[in-house]
Specification:
The structure holds two protein chains of two kinds.
Chain A: H1 10-43, E1 97-100, E2 118-120
Chain B: E1 2-8, E2 11-17, H1 26-42, H2 50-56, E3 62-63, H3 66-81, H4 91-97, E4 128-130, E5 135-137, H5 147-162, E6 168-172, E7 175-178, E8 188-194, E9 197-207, E10 210-216, E11 221-224, E12 227-230, E13 233-234, E14 239-240, E15 245-252, H6 255-268, H7 270-278, E16 284-289, E17 293-296
Antiparallel strand pairs in B: 1-2, 2-6, 3-5, 4-5, 6-7, 7-10, 8-9, 10-15, 11-12, 13-14, 15-16, 16-17
The chains are: A mainly alpha, B alpha+beta.
Chain lengths: 125, 304
């Protein structure tokens, strides 16, 4: 049986001690460093404010609506049916008159609606 | 002319007096206070109003204020001249149709599940009113809602109060009372709003005195169970009136009569409505149909 070879010199002993020291240092370093990292991860969590609306500006593009141009004689209908030029009165009385709603109107015989004090309209009650 | 505009009863109000004073008279400034007081009595949207308290006390004889008594009497008169088509007892039907809160707060579909599913039949004659004690006893299940009659009454009262200063006009959300011609003898010019284009007038009427009111289903409509609803209830069916009229404007000796008759014509439809207007020379009216047609009563022209 062959004997274990003996260390040849003091230099080899120093190298061995240095290697052990370095390995021990690195192992302990890793051990403590990782635990410190874990504890710092739990302790540094602090609530943060949600980003304010001004942090993320929203840009809305406004598309201009096309201009409405009415030709002479053209009537803009905002509701109801097409006005009838010749209308059938519902009333049994011949003295009642019938006309149709125009998109703009008013007036009367005394000079138009520009000088009205107020106007009557339906409302919720 | 001095004008005072303010908000009350959920509507824009206008009080105008034709006088030579440089500063608005105190009474004109006080009109908004009057309306606030009347609203506190008559509103069904304010739980602390006297009307709401009366509606809670069903089955109990309740002493009421002069204001509530007067408006109650006005509502009975409106029911009388409209053969019962204008009634203060349509509140349950209004709620059933979905009009259970101020219109600004509507369209919350979840709340519709809380609405009553059945309506009860209660007649005006079931209400006990004692003029001596000024008390009202509502039968169980009955609740009053004066609706447009309250606005018309308020406009009339305010105009009468301002009439001491000078010729006055009070517009309570479209119900307009006029006390007398302007100081120069001219009539007041009042527009009739075009329901298809609210920025324009269909006509301009000239009123020396009396009242004018418009009733319509054009302003407030909402969907319920897939059906279009509006706030003009036909007491005969308890449902929103089925009518060919979209809006009805009536001129009458008083704004309360104008308000009641406008609603009568709207509920009755154009044919019956026009016959009624033509049969009374104190009344004049303009009916705008759903299809845009305008029907004028015989005497309407004298106001143009």
């Amino acid at each position: 049986m062959q004997n274990k070879p003996a260390l040849k010199s003091w230099n080899e002993i120093e190298m061995l001690i240095s290697a052990i020291a370095i390995a021990l240092t690195l192992g302990l370093w890793n051990l403590f460093a990782s635990s410190a990292k874990a504890s710092s991860a739990t302790s540094t969590v602090t609530p943060t404010d949600p980003p304010s609306p001004t942090d993320t500006p929203v840009v809305v593009a406004i598309t201009p609506s096309p201009a409405l141009v009415l030709l002479p004689g053209q009537v803009l209908l905002l509701g109801g049916a097409v006005p009838q030029s010749a209308t059938q009165t519902v009333s049994q009385s011949s003295a009642s008159t019938t006309t149709s709603v125009q998109s703009s109107g008013g007036g009367g015989k005394r000079g138009g609606g520009g000088g009205t004090v107020t106007k009557t309209h339906s409302s919720h009650h | 002319m001095i004008r005072h505009e303010f908000q009350a009863m959920g509507s824009r109000m206008l009080a105008a007096v034709d006088c030579v004073a440089a500063e608005p008279p105190d009474d004109l400034r006080d009109v908004s206070v009057w309306f606030e007081e009347w609203e506190h009595v008559l509103s069904r949207f304010r739980s602390d109003s006297e009307l709401c308290q009366l509606n809670i006390n069903t089955g109990i004889e309740t002493l009421v204020s002069q204001t509530l008594w007067d408006v109650f009497q006005a509502s009975l008169e409106a029911a009388h001249i409209t053969n019962g088509l204008v009634s203060p007892l349509v509140l349950e039907a209004l709620i059933y149709a979905g009009y259970d809160r101020s219109f600004d707060m509507m369209f919350d579909a979840d709340l519709y599940s809380l609405l009553p599913q059945e309506r009860t039949e209660i007649a005006l004659s079931d209400i006990v009113a004692d003029v001596n004690t000024r008390s009202i006893t509502l039968p169980r299940g009955a609740r009053l809602d004066f609706g447009g009659i309250a606005k018309g009454w308020a406009a009339h009262q305010a105009a009468q109060g301002l009439g001491k200063i000078g010729p006055a006009l009070v517009d309570a959300g479209g119900d307009i009372a006029v006390t007398a011609p302007l100081l120069n003898g001219e009539p007041w010019a009042i527009g009739v709003e075009n329901p298809f284009n609210r920025d324009s007038n269909l006509e301009v009427i000239y009123l020396y005195s009396g009242g004018v009111a418009t009733s319509g289903k054009d302003y407030h409509r909402w969907m319920r169970n897939g059906t279009m609803q509006h706030h003009i209830i036909d007491p005969r069916t308890g449902l929103p009136a089925e009518t060919d009229a979209l809006t009805v404007t009536v001129i009458a000796p008083t704004v309360m009569e104008a308000e009641a008759m406008a609603k009568f014509v709207l509920i009755s439809g154009s044919q019956i409505g026009l016959e009624r207007l033509n049969g009374d020379d104190q009344l004049a009216g303009l009916i705008v149909l759903e299809n845009g047609q305008c029907l004028y009563s015989q005497s309407f022209e004298k106001y143009l």
